[in-house]
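Supplementary material to the annual report.
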Amino acid sequence: MKDTVKWPTFPYDEHRARITRAQQCLDQHRLDAMLLFAPVNWHYYGGFHDPAQLHSSVWRTALLVCRDRDPVAVPHLGLYPSITTQSWIEDVRPWADADNPVLPGLPRAFHRLLLDTLADLRLDDKRLGVETGTELDTYLGIDEHRALCAALPRAEIVSADPAIWAQRMIKTPWEHAVIRAGARRACECVRAAFEAIHPGANERDVHRAYWRRAADLDMIEAPSWGTWTCFTTNAREPLGFNRWIVGPVDRIIQVGDQGSSDGGPSYKGYQFDFQRTFCVGPPPEKLHTYHRLATDAHLETISHVRPGVRICDLHQAALHALARRGYEWPPVISFIGHQEGLNHHEPPWLIAGETTVLQPGMVLAIEIGAFDPDGEVFGAMPEDVILVTDGDPEILTAHLSHDLWIA
Amino acid sequence: MKQKPGVQWPNVPYDEYAARIERARQCLADHQLDAMILFSPTNWWYYGNFTDAAQMHNAIWRTAMIVSQTHDPVVVADTNFVWTFMHTSWVEDVRYHSAAPNPTVRAFTAGDDFYRLLFDTVRSLDLGRGTIGLETGADIATYLSVDEYFRIRDALPDARIVSADDAIFAQRMIKTPYEQAIIREGARRACLATRAAFDAIRPGVSEREVHRVFWRTAVELDLVESPYQGNWLCFSTNATETFFGQRWITGPVDRVIREGDFGNTDCGPSYKMYQFDFQRAFYVGRPSQDVLDWYEVGRQALLETMAAVKPGVRVADLFEVSLRAVTKRGAPEHPISFIGHSEGLANHEPPWLVAGNPAVIQPGMVLALEVGAFRDGTAYGGAMPEEIVLVTDTGTENLTVHMSNELYIAG
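Predicted assembly:
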């Protein structure tokens, strides 16, 4: 255990367990190593990040997670202090883009150092995974990928994504604790925002109330991603009632408005995507009806969440839960949820054809909607963050009621 | 192009949108591109004034924008973007896709598969045999994945697929007057937030508390929106406690600030999607004359370099000016390879201010200038103040002048 880690991102045992599991996943996916360029994966496998979000050509960094040996980081010197004090990775081979008095004499070219490191680890003729899919926000650019392939003619370069998600979709108990605490805080933020909704308030005021609470609860850090969407809408406006998935605008809230909150802030790197619905002033009975219907169907679907259930069967159960309540209008989106963790949407998605089996440790978002086909009222799509356990599922966003919020 | 009705809350004025598209066509022509297909939300925002508020970097809600020399912009979007386009974006030709079976959704979708619709759209615009640019470089945060890149290449075998990056940054590196106004205001607010955070620094305070003060102020100043990416760095450090003295480029930790600490802020929040990367330094307690002298070396070298920024100056020559500015004051050469960079919708954009770069400084550029003076083997390394400057017709306007670049004495 290295002795410079003053502020570990996670405990040493967590680090060891993740690397051991990663090595199993590499073995199962017939990979000798993976070269990781996504800061989210650096965080997960290495306990370090890029707090400056330097998605640029200058400070290139990669983390090598290997099947047969401990991981190796090849960071720019700029990340070296955080790796030294926060990450348990011991084999760190920094480079610098100039001769730096802090650590003079370092290699000066990232790609040369990366290739030399692969050769040193005897990985340059092996099967290597890199992040290639649409679900991973990686710094690996197309040009860089092509250059790597050209520079490693004896290696077989394939996608690391299946190996990554096989591991990341099952959260560890340490992650559960962070996500549980974060989900509770996210509920508090939404409540603070909803309490700010009243006729005459600007939609941006509601957002300010939300982020003010988020700042107090340490949900804005560096780096962080803000994706909280909270939109007010009204069928009487031109193109009215169905505003959805939009950022804040200068709109004055009025009696009769309806709306929804979705997405959320991050806590210790983890993201929280869940939905709640509100109405300004007395809600029309029709809105109550759709809200109740959606909530009941949503909770019934959650009750089916058990280890061993196939996702496609859960999807079918959701449609059935709506249909047996007399709601036959086909869904407006193709999924009833997804996984979440360091990303607010992670695979496997809860879609009709997904045969993955639910397993303890998964963290799901489930979102079942019932909207008004006539467009007179908004309807509802309650969404919760749910931990799959050996027994009943744990609703992590239970700290904010599913009831229609009447502002 | 004509102004579409119904845009109640435009993200940019119509004239700005039209001017950007016109300029984009010139850049495409200059770089021998028939079109570019954009997968980066930052570029969607720049060229189409829409973004992905939920930051859905995933396989489900794929969206791409086609900017071409001969057609008005076309977006192939997931149906969930429909309200964004109706209310906030001037792009008229939006072709929606969705696999959802809902009849209302299907009534306005052009297809159920994103890629099929995208490729059909490319061919419908007579681009199937054209030269098409994609975002391929390390400087653009894009949703375009490696798998997707090869899929596009395979599906358009008669097209020539190249990088769009040069055409993109040829345009984005010169900020429009509209952008300059936003950046000017955002930089002022970023200074206020940093100043509030510095005012909270004193012995006994946790580093995290300083961050809370920054973000609370940022919220009041509308520097936190959806979507946003937060990258404000503020680290306290002390040569006696880390093995090589200086923490740098790190997020907040549970560290209690004490007398004799020093530290730095770097990067920052965003305002109307623009980012603000600038640096200030602080010292907790009473700094020695040595500390003050070394800080001043860095500051004076920065000011001397800033004074040399003018239209027509080559970046390579500016770099030489900065090198002389530090060495003549007795400091070693630069500890990093650059003395700055452009900034805008990303906190670091090309051109990078590096040795040998022949790029010429032009009016409308927004540059971060960061010239450091560091010394070997001392408890306090030196300083790297950083300013955001707008290049004007005659020189520069310092946009981060609202917070002094002198060493902040805290506590």
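The longest helix of chain B spans residues 177-199.
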